[in-house]
Amino acid sequence: MEAECVVADDAEELFDASETFKKSALLSSREQYAALYKNSVDDPDGFWSHTASQFFWKSKWEESKAHTENLDVRKGEIRVEWFKGGCTNICYNAVDRHVEAGRGDDVALLWEANDPGFDMKLTYKELLDRVCQLSNYLLAVGIKKGDTVAIYMPMLLELPIAMLACARIGAVHSVVFAGFSAESLAQRILDCKPKVLLTTSGVKRGPKLIKLKEIVDDALNRCVQEGGYSVDYCLTYDNKLAIKREDTPWKEKRDVWWQDVVPNYPTDCPVEWVDAEDPLFLLYTSGSTGKPKGVLHTTGGYMVYTATTFKHAFDYHDGDVYWCTADCGWITGHSYVTYGPLLNKATVLIFEGVPNYPDAGRCWEIVDKYHVTIFYTAPTAIRALMRSGDEPVKRHSRKSLRVLGSVGEPINPSAWRWYFEVVGDSRCPIADTWWQTETGGFMITPLPGCWPLKPGSATLPFFGVQPAVVDENGKELDGECTGFLCMKASWPGIFRSLYGDHARYETTYFAPFKGFYFSGDGCRRDKDGYYWLTGRVDDVINVSGHRIGTAEVESALVAHPLAAEAAVVGIDHEVKGQGIYAFVTLNEGVEYTADLKSSLISTVRCQIGAFAAPDAIHWAPGLPKTRSGKIMRRILRKIASKQLDDLGDISTLADPGVVAQLIEFTDK
Ligand code: WTA
Fold this sequence. Notes:
Blueprint: H1 19-24, H2 30-42, H3 44-52, E1 67-70, E2 79-82, E3 87-88, H4 90-103, E4 107-112, E5 119-123, H5 124-140, E6 148-152, H6 158-168, E7 172-175, H7 182-192, E8 196-200, E9 203-205, E10 208-210, H8 212-227, E11 233-237, E12 255-257, H9 258-261, E13 274-275, E14 279-285, E15 293-298, H10 300-313, E16 321-324, H11 331-343, E17 347-351, H12 362-370, E18 374-377, H13 379-387, H14 391-394, E19 403-406, H15 413-423, E20 430-432, E21 467-470, E22 481-487, E23 497-498, H16 502-509, E24 517-525, E25 531-536, E26 540-543, E27 546-549, H17 550-557, E28 563-573, E29 577-586, H18 594-607, E30 616-619, H19 633-640, H20 657-664
Parallel strand pairs: 4-17, 6-7, 6-8, 7-14, 8-11, 11-12, 16-17, 16-18, 18-19, 19-20, 29-30
Antiparallel strand pairs: 1-2, 3-13, 4-5, 9-10, 14-15, 15-23, 21-22, 22-24, 24-25, 26-27, 28-29
This protein binds 5'-O-[(S)-ethoxy(hydroxy)phosphoryl]adenosine.
């Protein structure tokens, strides 16, 4: 692991919210925050019990004991429980509760299609009806509490509906991002063995048609061949705007058209009351070894945490129209498209398309069309839009915008400033939210209105979050410092395990620094206590905000019949944040050609998905290894970024000669 200190170009520049903003903000001073924060860490049980009581619980947990935890591997098994013994249902709290409070006619979901001109909306009452029908279908095909349901869908309204329908009946959803390949989908299905898969015939993303059902059929065949496993049903939404039914591959009995069956079910369905610690969902994420990890979240703590973080980080008010550009296939879409906002009764915009189609003004056209007040996106999207200049932004009014958000990777100060000045007309605070699939919700984030922002810093910890910056020996550092970002205590949204592999949960997150949860990120804390995240310190690359394990890309590359070995490192990329740079050793006697480079790249697309395709392939007659056979990525990173006079000590290599060879192969 290597920590690095990235100093912002002008770290001391402060941006404070306007007096008008502060006047109506939920919280508007650092003192107010400090008092609440102190209470949240001095008395976590009291603080979170009070917060949780805003939701509906069929029965309560024991108030004085809202949680129990052990985060110290030296003291035995790692275990976290919040609100154990409390009985609730997150779908009930996100949907029924609002309808029962007389707000059924308020708009829950707005949908904007990939192609301008097509849209839809659902009120909370209509959403409830749709969710119930799907829950009834799932019950009818034999899904019970605790069963897993896989969902492989693009951003249609049916995606959040599917998540809520599972939650309603206590089923565990496992959403797989619809940009993953057949191989990746198969791997995830084989890990969690869902009885039912929910999917779509196809989808348009920008100008491209993606035939999702073809990918699904390929994946399901692989599951049979590689693992002897088949799903009982594949419920397929007929996405008429993208592809015709007759052009969709079909397997009778297993495949069922959604629209043919689901609307026939009743629009009421009883809620399954579950324990706060019953599982809500699995979401696979990349780690530093090849096999994706099934991050397991439970119900009660996740519910309370996502709702509370949403409300405060975005200063949510009744009537806000909220748009998060993330896909529900990632954690951001789970916590901040579906659950967090709906638990607050927000109006949520779901966008099927991409930010620059048909042109770079699309986002702002949508903002004006729906009067979006809170807009949440990733630095990579901001940088891509920034390249098209200010005109596509300024062409639209954007006067409805009140709060902006950023997530996925550190935002560079110049992108921050463009976002603030051009998109937000220097009027909207930016919530740069640092968090992870594992944390469930925001951990370090500005609370707009409470304290001045510094471009590039995620600022201060949320209520109940106790960060520790540690050195390589696991010693907690004080004051201004640089090191590894850990957490000292649990918070309600923390994941409880890795599906089927509690030992890996412990060794990955709790063993590196004993007594702490380790995030895998490096960070710096400045004199004002602000946190500056500096990126991953493990073998994970963050490409356009997507986490990709170097080992996953390497194993995809060596699946190519002509590749003998591969080593992958991240390099700086102007738009994506990081790009993927792959060193590949070919089998003896194979010729180096441009065609072979393309073929290697398409192998990765097929094995993982297009978003993981390497940006560059560098031929490697040999790889720099230590005498014990460990690849020295530090050297590869320097070669990839052409810092050739700064290679460091290469004398410990088994064969220092490979370095000169590699340099010779640059640009070949
Ligand atoms: C990175 C996405 C800096 C970080 C929610 C983390 C960030 C990883 C930020 C988690 C941010 C996310 N500033 N870095 N605001 N947000 N990251 O699991 O490296 O897809 O560990 O969750 O993204 O990625 P994940």
